[in-house]
Amino acid sequence: MSMGCYDDFTTKNLNNEDLSFNEALRLFEYPLPVLGRISDEIRKIKCGDLVTFVVDININYTNVCTSKCRFCAFYAKGNDAYVLSKEEILKKVKMAVEMGATQVMIQGGLNPELRIEWFEDVFSTIKKQFDVQLHSLSPPEIYFLAKIENTSIKEVLERLKNAGLDSLPGGGAEILTDRVRSIISPNKVNTSGWLKVIENAHKLGMRTTATMMFGHVESDRDIIEHLFKIRDLQAKTGGFTAFIPWTFQPERTELFKEVKKAVPPTRYLQVLAISRIVLHNFRNIQASWLTQGFDVAKLSLFFGANDFGGTMIEENVVRATGKQFVPARVEDIVNAVKSVGRGVAQRRTDYKIIRYF
Ligand code: SF4
Prior knowledge:
- Helix content is 43%, strand content 13%.
- By secondary structure, the protein is of the alpha/beta class.
- It has one domain: Aldolase class I (TIM Barrel, Alpha-Beta Barrel).
- It has a 4-stranded mixed beta sheet.
- A hairpin with a 5-residue loop joins β9 and β10.
- The radius of gyration is 19 Å and the shape is globular.
- It binds iron/sulfur cluster (SF4).
- Iron/sulfur cluster binds next to loops.
């Protein structure tokens, strides 16, 4: 593939052909408008001009965490530790459902006090009382539960699925290379463990997303390795619904000593576009308004994104970095998307459309 042959990338993507590692790496040398053009063309052919979003709540049930990742501003440092009670969680779910939420994300720290029965109880109670999709617990939490329960990942997933867990958010992926993980999150699940949880979930018929957090100590090669790992797992299982890249927010984290600033929007858009071009077997790529703000999120719709993510009625993890956080109202997302000339619709977790605006 020559440097001038941009259309080859579109053709390869649409034919579901893998790029070689060097082809993918060379994308970083392309000017941003060129990456925009290629990724936008692929997005248009694959997804059309409709932008989707979900109404959801993100409940962070505890900030007690044994992992203490160096990029995280959320875990308890001392007397700020908390665990939400089941009643508090149910109250939040009720509030979200009254605001139109269809998706409930329950995620938190790795807290050895919370055993699998606690999650089974919370999940089954929510499912009994509310008609929502439980899109909860990232791979590090599942992996940790298997460890403290001294059982298999499969067993943990089966039990939680029986209690009502529908699907998993693909969080805690950060960068899926052990070189990077050993620097930024040495106590957390490694690359193969993360992939193993996802593969097990897919085998049980549970769908998941995949995320990537970049803008810290990773190289371009690490990013391509990450994309290839999830592309190859998707080829095997077909269980991923979407890919969500987002940027590291350094304030109030231990890593701040080494990385003082979040990467600029141009880097975000570059990586987003490259993700769209490389991940030929993913239909949905989400914009991250939470880390980028609405203006860049709107721009991202021209760099491969076709989905605006969730309204995030509550969110504490990014907010812990001090980043100003106001949940998005449905009309904020609708207006933002319409202002750039795209159609917009509310979806469910499984990307089925609920209503058009
Ligand atoms: S990112 Fe998650 S696992 Fe890591 S310290 Fe924060 S809460 Fe714990």
